[in-house]
Amino acid sequence: MNRLNAANAITSSRIAFALLILFTPAFSVPFYVFYLLGAATDMADGIIARKLNQESSFGAKLDTIADFIFITAVFIKIVMNVTVPAWLWIWAAIIASIKLINLISGFVVCRRFVAVHSIMNKITGGILFCLPIFIGLKLPHQMMSGICIITCVIATFAAVQEGHYIRTGKAPE
Prior knowledge:
mainly alpha
């Protein structure tokens, strides 16, 4: 399958939006324009790939790489501009550790890297997508703490569920 296609071009544009985010002021209009465009490409590339019969292993890997770069750029921009409490860093590290264990066990069990597209992982992604928007709204501290706690609870459950799916061979595709 041709690697240069509409779906892969859309996915690649997410990398460009990630780089642009790094060079715009945090929580400014350009930041949110690039953020929303990046999110739109994340939703559109898979739909376009399926509609145009452009699904490929390369496209799936490119999507994962583009997601990682985009999330990293947004994370860097937020962390450089928002004070993150210690408890949130610890909780995020625990979730990341669970996800890393899942990645390793998926490779051991399935002999490949496994991406679990569970409903809980999608809910987690949706909530995480909204966090920069909530931060930009300058919500009260208690409300942001509550949103972060709810996000961490859901993300922890999703990570544990993902590990269960991988180790029992019941991972939804």
